[in-house]
Amino acid sequence: MKPTDTGEGAYRVARIRERLAGDDIAELGVRVEERGGAVLLTGTVSSPEQRDGVLRAVAEELGDDTPVRSDLVVASTAAPDAHEDLP
Length: 87
Fold this sequence. Notes:
- The protein contains two helices and three strands; from the N terminus they run αββαβ.
- By secondary structure, the protein is of the alpha+beta class.
- The chain has a three-stranded mixed sheet with strand order 1-2-3, covered by helices on one side.
- The protein is elongated, with a radius of gyration of 16 Å.
């Protein structure tokens, strides 16, 4: 049985949420869900390094037996490179 079949999946998702909210990562903008035997990550992070840290922490928590699907977006903090034309 997969961990998601036994209810252990919900426990592991909760552990991931706690780890992401912890001091070393402190990321509250990532949503963690269990879907079809995989863990789905969605949301916005502040940098590519933050995204990599989230993915690394999730991989450490889950190991190799549960696939991870990531739909994390890195927020752009750069100034616009062109002006916006309004009608």
